[in-house]
Each structure stands twice: as structure tokens, then as C-alpha cells.
Amino acid sequence: MDPKKVDAVVLVGGKGTRLRPLTLSAPKPMLPTAGLAFMTHLLARIAAAGIEHVILGTSYKAAVFEAEFGDGSKLGLQIEYVFEEEALGTGGGIANVAPKLRHDTAIIFNGDVLSGADLGELLNHHASHQADVTLHLVRVSDPRAFGCVPTDGDNRVLAFLEKTQDPPTDQINAGCYVFNREIIDRIPRDREVSVEREVFPTLLSDGLKVCGYVDTSYWRDMGTPEDFVRGSSDLVRGIAPSPALTKPRGEFLVHDGASVAPGALLIGGTVVGRGAEIGPGVRLDGAVIFDGAHIEAGATVERSIIGFGARIGPRALIRDGVIGDGADIGARCELLRGARVWPGVKVPDLGIRYSSDI
Ligand code: GDD
Ligand code: MG
């Protein structure tokens, strides 16, 4: 199938609640990952597949996307934006972009997925199976947080079970679908619709041809702090593919204008943002340090995200935590196991242990 005759639609209207407090200031797809707004990796992949026209379905913090990507020409794309005043859900978001579609086939993406799936192969699979809709499917160890999608021996989708506690298979919706235009026109307009809970089950009960395309390439939903940290580390180390990253990859990535004192240890796919300062004796293991953050002497940051301009005091320990923009963590504090600190909050020195939200 000619990728130039396919529209790409990226759903980016969600609030990114599971990544709060980072998503209080930036929408999830715009959070920095390996030095670039996350969406850049997805858009570069779309461009590399030869697709030219992209529509972003926005709602939460919509203006940030256009400010960053403009008309898309820097990425070799033509990008348009469609805004939902009230978020319309994933299905409503797809229906809402219909007036901007130029072609008979659209490829829809969740905006928070890091994946190496071959988009050309997915499109060809859709065409050769003469499907109405084709879903990219992957296998995961715990399918309960996703849409569970059993298929038969001919790749026909049998059911779509969104976030079920008792999934019949480990095969899940990878958040990328090919839709024939007339199927998009069947989605109810101007009201909230879930593609997962309403559109897919209705298409199946109406007997439409919904196919699955299963592959084993890299795949990760970046929606939780654990996955965000892991996906960022995988990008830095070259485990996750991205056509937007052209330099050789390694154990860490330090951006322009950052300073790292001698004797600091950076491992595990750590990334240090622009203008950040890393003190002597600091240990960063799988750390995501946003621009302008300061990590002071002897502190340790493991598998954690440190927001824009935050400060981590001397000999503090942050493990599996999320520190909001501009927060100030005192000397010797220990923030462990899912601890989250809200933007601008000051945690005093003392070495107190916290493992809940502050
Ligand atoms: N335009 C628009 N409007 N976009 C939305 C809306 C909306 O109302 N609600 C959510 N989105 C966007 C989000 O910004 C995100 O990029 C994408 O839709 C998916 O939303 P998530 O909130 O990340 O969903 P999820 O991760 O819980 O589940 C979805 O993705 C899984 C794979 O990553 C589902 O599609 C699952 O079935 C799937 O397995
Ligand atoms: Mg998600």
C-alpha cells in the first residue's frame, strides 16, 4: 500500500493522570525522552515509513503541540491539529478528525507508545487481508492493564476486552490501528466514544472484518512512571528504536549545557537534560533528569524522574520516584517505591523516609 495515500492520526488528548505530577505542566506525549519531546520519536517513525499527512487529535494542553511541531515541515510532514473542547474519548477523537482526512485509509496511533513495529508491513497486511480494520497486537506478560484481543488462526479478531481482570490471552491491543475511511464514518460524532469499549465491540458484533497483525518488535506504553523510565533508558541505550536519534547510543546521554562533576557515576541509560548540574559522587542509575535540575554531592537517583529545575539535596536517595518541577528535596531524604513529590514542594533536610505522595 502506498504510504503517501494514508493519513496518520495521533491521539494526544489524554490527561496523563498516571504520570502526574509531570503531566501537570506538560501533556504526556511532550515529556522529554532521550532529549526530545516523546512525540518526536513517533512522528519520525511515521515520516520514515513514507506517510506525509498527520492529524493530531488534541484536547489537554493542546497549544503545546502546535508550538513544538508547527506545520511539521521540519520533520518532512504536513501536520494539522484538531482540538476537542471537551475530550471526546479515543473513538470520539478519531471521528472528530474525519473532516481533515484526505485518503481512504487512516492509521491511528495512541500518542504514548514507543514501538518498533514496521508500519509498511502493517499497512500491507491490512490491504492483503482486505480488512475493514487492522489492529497491531503484541504479547505482554501482564495483559490486565491493556485491551485483550484474542484472534483465530486466520488473524481475525474474535473479541476486544478492555482492561479485564481475567484476560483469556496475553495478546493485547498495541494502540495502533488501520481503519478504512468508511469505518471511521460509522463512529458517532460529537459525543464521547471509546474506541476500545464501544467501537471495536460494535464492529465485531456487526460482522465487519477486523484483523490482527501480531509482531515481536520493541513495544512499550509509556503511561506509568516505571514504563516511562524504562522506555527512556531503552532509547538511550539503543534497545528501543527511534529514527529521531541519530548519534551512537550508550549507557548515558548528557545534553548540551549540562555539567557533570568528576566522580559522578552515570549508568543504566541515564539521561541528563540541558543545563542540569550533577555534583561529585552522585550516582544516577536509569535516571531521567529534566532540564535545569540540580543533583547535589553524593545523592543517588535510581529509576526515577526528576522534573524541570528540581533540586535533590546532598546524599539524598530517590528510588522509583517522581519529583515534580521545581521541587526541592533536602539533604539525606529518602524517597522510595513510587514516592511522588508535587511541583514546588520543599522537603526539609533530615533524612526522613517517604514513600507516598507529597
Ligand atoms: N484526542 C483524544 N481525546 N485523545 C485521547 C483521549 C480523548 O478524549 N483520551 C485519551 N486519548 C489519547 C491519550 O492521550 C493517549 O495517547 C491515547 O489516547 C491512549 O490513552 P491512554 O490513557 O494512554 O490509554 P491506555 O494506555 O490506558 O490504554 C490504551 O492503550 C493501550 C496500549 O498502549 C488502550 O487503547 C488499550 O486498549 C491499549 O492496550
Ligand atoms: Mg497509554
TrEMBL record:
<comment type="similarity">
    <text>Belongs to the transferase hexapeptide repeat family.</text>
</comment>
<dbReference type="Pfam" id="PF00483">
    <property type="entry name" value="NTP_transferase"/>
</dbReference>
<feature type="domain" description="Mannose-1-phosphate guanyltransferase C-terminal">
    <location>
        <begin position="250"/>
        <end position="344"/>
    </location>
</feature>
<dbReference type="InterPro" id="IPR005835">
    <property type="entry name" value="NTP_transferase_dom"/>
</dbReference>
<dbReference type="InterPro" id="IPR029044">
    <property type="entry name" value="Nucleotide-diphossugar_trans"/>
</dbReference>
<dbReference type="InterPro" id="IPR056729">
    <property type="entry name" value="GMPPB_C"/>
</dbReference>
<dbReference type="InterPro" id="IPR050486">
    <property type="entry name" value="Mannose-1P_guanyltransferase"/>
</dbReference>
<protein>
    <submittedName>
        <fullName>NDP-sugar synthase</fullName>
    </submittedName>
</protein>
<feature type="domain" description="Nucleotidyl transferase">
    <location>
        <begin position="8"/>
        <end position="235"/>
    </location>
</feature>
<dbReference type="Pfam" id="PF25087">
    <property type="entry name" value="GMPPB_C"/>
</dbReference>
